[in-house]
Amino acid sequence: MARQQGFRRAPRAALVVWQSVALSAVVSACAAAPLAAVAALGPTGARAGLAARGAWSAVPVLLLTAPILARLLWSGHVVGTGLRRRRREHRTMVDVLGRPAGSVRVLAHPTPTAYCLPGLRRRVVLSEGAVQTLPPDQLAAVLAHEDAHLRARHDLVLEFFTVLHRSAPAWLRSPSALREVRLLVEVLADRVARRRTGPVAVARALVALAGARHPDTALGASGEAGGLRERLALLAEDDAPAWLSAAMYAFAAGTLAAPAAVIALGLGSMGA
Amino acid sequence: MRGRAINRLGELERAVMDEVWAAADRGATTVSVREVHEQLAESRHLAYTTVMTVMARLSDKGLLTREKAGRAFRYAAAGTREELTADTMREQLVGMDTEDRRAAMLHFLGDASAEEIADLKAALAEVEARHGTSAQG
Q1: Which domains, ranges and CATH numbers included, belong to chain B?
Q2: Residues 19-48, chain B: which have Cβ within 8 Å of A?
Q3: What is the ipTM of this complex?
Q4: Distance between CA B50 and CA A70 in Å, rounded?
Q5: What are the tens digits of pLDDT across the range B72-109?
Q6: Can you give the pTM of this predicted structure?
Q7: Which chain B residues contact residue A197 at CB under 8 A?
């Protein structure tokens, strides 16, 4: 549903929806065991059970909920430290080998490319090829796009989804959901760049950089298109109407409220 | 303050690499810390030990190679600027698997197939038609 083009025209709202759905899924999974126990025993049974067995009644909770939490925390740790280490190593090389040009580093490489290194010590990196190939308005578009990623900390959003993706069991994973989130993050940055330079400059920069990939730096067919077509199509379109964004934010709030309400009801029935 | 100190260190590492490459251009395949310090100290206040530390760090990072020659080390660049840059970029593009690379850096665009590029040009034409062909949209 969320992959409809219409929703992509409100990329920030769409991202909030995805995050709320993911978060409420995690909360629901963690709360499932204790809630199931309450439901099975009934309110008086649960209270009696707790009184009778005291600490032992915590065992099923621990057996079911704790592994989920542990997996999440472990995955978060592994993903987080790995990302930061790779970025630090690359940033070291960029700082030494790159030519500083304002707040940007330019690497002496003919293939036009542009990327950013997010984090506390952030960098925007362009190749010499990009600087030579792109006219000033397109360069400005690229820089505005990368700057948007850095300022809004899109890396944290992607990290959140990556951690969930890795900690979910294989049958529960959704690679297309991950792809969609990545696309939305790019569309969001495109929108910011568009406001600064207009859609044509951003679109031309996209096509110019796409068409200039050096053969030996291009990865083999990874199967995943970069969403370039979608990004170009969305550049031509206006933002979604305000009522649609508002509806999406309301939906997101709803998905977060649902597990909270269920938990409250469950706890309430125990006390009744 | 701290930011400025880090910038100075980065600037120093660049200056050392520039000097090592320049020396190689002049025919000196290896250099000593003293030779590099002499060159750099001409235009800035720089302690010998600072240069020594920086060159040791660059060697640890794989940008310089070093050999013991008597009591001191002699350093050489591990490659030209272009070679080291290409290595860095290749390692970044190929060395990590796609997932990790995409998460570690946010690239302006991902990989495009040849068919996609042709489609893109058509899509670009539509953007230009709807929003004008002037540079400022």
Answers
A1: 2-77 (1.10.10.10)
A2: none
A3: 0.78
A4: 46
A5: 899 999 999 989 998 888 776 665 556 666 666 777 77
A6: 0.82
A7: 136-137
